[in-house]
């Protein structure tokens, strides 16, 4: 099997369902200090997809910033090079109509997959089913703060992996 065949097979598996895509997304951004699998991450995103952090960020200042994947990688890479980071989904609410899906995904930020959380937040994912696969269109997220805690309804929904 060629390298490209392996990549295509992995992308097909990663985008076969909403659950598969979100699992691949969390896997691709989590890991020990060093680079992540950015090629795998890019393969999940619809061309032109946007990544939008809001409020206080775990590694920097606050505010709203709209980025494409390359801007996000440039922004986060220096932190990932020196710090382990695992974003672990703890609850999920999915709504779907036709080819559109919206997912509220509550996460914990940890240094190891099973470690103690040092932060929490909620991702708002918008996805579309196109060309026989799922694509991430937008990832819009906010980290929990003392002034803005995660509502109970976003902690109750089990992950549907």
TrEMBL record:
This is Nuclear transport factor 2 family protein. Residues 33-136 form the DUF4440 domain. It comes from the Bacteria.
